[in-house]
Amino acid sequence: MSVAFRRESDDEHLEPRFELPIPPGPNRVTPRGLALIEGKIAALEAAVSAGGSEEELKALRRDLRYWRTRGATAELMPPFAGEEADFGARVRYRDGRKENAVTIVGHDEAEPAAGRIAFTAPLARALTGVAEGDLVPFAGRTLEILAVERGDVE
């Protein structure tokens, strides 16, 4: 039967709404990442309490389940302190003539445009364990590590 002949109230033709996928592996977070998760949970709980249409509430509850799960599984990592890049480190590197910097963080606070990448990202994996002065092969190029310092994760 064509969709044109269905009533709008028929739920059978609606696409199923699946749960939001949880990234595999540990849920490592920085203090900033934990605060972001707690903020999301509080905002979603307030939105659910405020009410809305059945569809809106379904979507809010779905998002709330995701963020509650992320909050319950969060592993707060100690602040970065060392010479070799690891979780929470800010790594400045030169890629050819261009200088870049990234901070290695958890999945939920990753924002590549702001220089925060998830610890499971290919670049983060390539940078983990490097120190100032190292040369690192990555994606057919060589990255020169300029500095490894504590990231902006508070």
Automatic annotation (TrEMBL):
InterPro entries: Tscrpt_elong_fac_GreA/B_C (IPR001437). Residues 1-18 have a biased composition (Basic and acidic residues). GO terms for molecular function: translation elongation factor activity. The keyword Protein biosynthesis applies. It holds the Pfam family GreA_GreB. Keywords: Elongation factor, Protein biosynthesis. Residues 84-149 form the Transcription elongation factor GreA/GreB C-terminal domain. It comes from the Bacteria. This is GreA/GreB family elongation factor. It comes from Sphingomonas quercus. Residues 1-26 are annotated as: Disordered.
